Amino acid sequence: MDYRKKEAYVFPILPDADIVQFLEEVVDDFTDVDVKKPTIQRLNLVYDAILRVTTGVTNEEWGKTDWYEQLNNRVHNKIDNVEFYTEPMQLMALYRRMNKLMAAIGVADFSFFDILRPESSRVRRILSAIINFMRFREDRMYIFNDYEKHSEELLEKNEELVIRYHALVGKVNELKLQRKEQENEVKSYMQQNANLMSGMRELKKKQTGLLNEIAALKNVRADWTEKINNTHFLVVTAKQVLEKLKSRIVLNPDKLKQTIEEMNETMAREKETMLGLDKKVRDIQTKFDMLTIVEE
């Protein structure tokens, strides 16, 4: 009965000499006898060595963690002589690993009978497939190494980014806490600022009122200045007329003196009024300057 599956991958069947030349560096004491007259014991060693090269783990190391402990747990205190089951389980473990390897290579017809009842033609075909894969693996190993190196660099960069991320998160949390602690102080400053702005608006109103008052006083001063100038002009004109009439008119010295004194008194009163207005304007201007300084 043929238990083998249909072939799923085509590859060259190598001569025995090529198989021996390649595998003698992988398997100790490998010869063409292992191909022409295969035995279970030798094939176990051959396949175990191949698995060690391709996966990095021997069948014994893998079996201790995969099936040996499970076997002890299942049959402990149930049957005697558990060691009788060790060898069959080792063969089953070897088959499971080899089956995964062959499936990965592209050989879908590998079966348990290739380990339990090895045939020369089947062994030659299986080893040819494995050698074809291992050669391909060696040719592409530099690509894998490049990717592995790049992956390590990315992992290092990722670790750096993670560290930076946690540092930034800590900084953000610290700033949030600091902001929360300063929230009351900020509110107090905002209230003070609002109060100052309100005071500034009141001062602005007073400043506007003082400006209007200054403008009104300036108008009054201008009116009085014009009146004084007119009066001064009249006095000068009168003096000129009097000088012309002195030779013609006999004047009453007392009356003339009285008239002149009255005119001088009028001018003095007007000057005092002007001085008072100037002082008031200066006072208002001083207040205005003070308000301007406060506003700045």
UniProtKB/TrEMBL annotation:
<keyword id="KW-0137">Centromere</keyword>
<keyword id="KW-0175">Coiled coil</keyword>
<protein>
    <submittedName>
        <fullName>18815_t:CDS:1</fullName>
    </submittedName>
</protein>
<dbReference type="GO" id="GO:0045132">
    <property type="term" value="P:meiotic chromosome segregation"/>
</dbReference>
<dbReference type="InterPro" id="IPR038275">
    <property type="entry name" value="Nuf2_N_sf"/>
</dbReference>
<dbReference type="GO" id="GO:0044877">
    <property type="term" value="F:protein-containing complex binding"/>
</dbReference>
<comment type="similarity">
    <text>Belongs to the NUF2 family.</text>
</comment>
<keyword id="KW-0158">Chromosome</keyword>
<feature type="coiled-coil region">
    <location>
        <begin position="165"/>
        <end position="220"/>
    </location>
</feature>
<keyword id="KW-0995">Kinetochore</keyword>
<dbReference type="GO" id="GO:0031262">
    <property type="term" value="C:Ndc80 complex"/>
</dbReference>
<dbReference type="GO" id="GO:0051301">
    <property type="term" value="P:cell division"/>
</dbReference>
<dbReference type="InterPro" id="IPR005549">
    <property type="entry name" value="Kinetochore_Nuf2_N"/>
</dbReference>
<dbReference type="GO" id="GO:0007052">
    <property type="term" value="P:mitotic spindle organization"/>
</dbReference>
<keyword id="KW-0132">Cell division</keyword>
<keyword id="KW-0498">Mitosis</keyword>
<feature type="domain" description="Kinetochore protein Nuf2 N-terminal">
    <location>
        <begin position="9"/>
        <end position="147"/>
    </location>
</feature>
<keyword id="KW-0539">Nucleus</keyword>
<dbReference type="GO" id="GO:0005634">
    <property type="term" value="C:nucleus"/>
</dbReference>
<dbReference type="GO" id="GO:0051383">
    <property type="term" value="P:kinetochore organization"/>
</dbReference>
<dbReference type="Pfam" id="PF03800">
    <property type="entry name" value="Nuf2"/>
</dbReference>
<dbReference type="GO" id="GO:0051315">
    <property type="term" value="P:attachment of mitotic spindle microtubules to kinetochore"/>
</dbReference>
<keyword id="KW-0131">Cell cycle</keyword>
